[in-house]
Fold this protein.
Amino acid sequence: MPKQVDHEARRRLIAEALWRIASTRGLEGASLRDVAAEAGISLGQLQHYFTSKEEMLAFALDHISALAEQRVRSRVQAVSETPEPRTVVRETLAEMLPLDDKSRTGNLVQIAYFVRAVHSESARGHAKKGVPGLRRFLADQLARAAADGTPHRHPNRHPDRHPDPDEAAMLLIALVDGLTTYTLLDVLAPDEALKLLDRQLDLFFA
Amino acid sequence: MPKQVDHEARRRLIAEALWRIASTRGLEGASLRDVAAEAGISLGQLQHYFTSKEEMLAFALDHISALAEQRVRSRVQAVSETPEPRTVVRETLAEMLPLDDKSRTGNLVQIAYFVRAVHSESARGHAKKGVPGLRRFLADQLARAAADGTPHRHPNRHPDRHPDPDEAAMLLIALVDGLTTYTLLDVLAPDEALKLLDRQLDLFFA
């Protein structure tokens, strides 16, 4: 009888090995063999789950996204059972910033993916699928706020120059990416990055 | 008599080798030896100029910044001899976006530096010095626009919630970093990134 393998447990083991490498020496130079060694399994066993570094990084990112979504959901619900759009948007974006060790490590995995995807078109699928999804989610929240009458109306300016919900959503996603960069480089303190995010939200919500 | 070496020419040669590596396979995995080979000089000759990869990347970034500043200056002057603050801010930030092959390669060198600096505190000096300088420059332009009465006044909102020039400057720098990320990942087209930058400038200038 073949030995039973708990595939879910092994995937978690691999994700945790990736996590440890990302938070210490970085994933950029790490091979599949390095990750197998860190997880305490053979290269062959690792390749049962992932045949390329791209696949492994995509798995790690999906894992991070799922954990982050859980955290956002519980943070939003801690604030209110019927949260305002601004609260949902703020907590979603704040979760993406490197404000603590856990989110910082998530950012390091994302950077490893980013470097890979910049130099290899075939690795860009995760970003090309994930970012528009997040953008639609945020745009929907911003549109809900607009329908409630909570966003700013600027009577003294040309109305079509104010970003629409879809544009505002992408501005927020890009801003958070940049705030992450400068926080990881110690140019911004974490609380300064969060304050700047709030300043930007002030422009989109009353 | 010792052979005369044109140090300036050799530095340029090395910068161009760095540039070529950055635009093809990426600088992340490149060693000093790889760069020397690409430049057609010995490792010893390269080490006459740079003793570490950090030094070499810092040199490449300074070189890129100097070229970018020249390009911004001529673009701004092509618009007007007495340019508006918005024009100066816009052209400075647009130059940082990967809108053509030249600026795209500059961004790839910056990413190589970024990855290095995220994992090594000693490499962060360039960013910790350069970003505040750019922030002061942009804040000064935004403050000039405010003194001219051109920025928005929002009579219907609490005045202290509008970003001050220093905050607005950092919001713009972070935004451009994020727009660069998503343009390099093909999530945004270059013209979409530029349009989003203009939308953000609409929030800060009349």
Chain A has a mean pLDDT of 86. Chain A has nine helices and no strands. Chain A touches chain B through 49 residues (CB under 8 Å). Residues 139 and 169 of chain A are 5 Å apart (CA to CA).
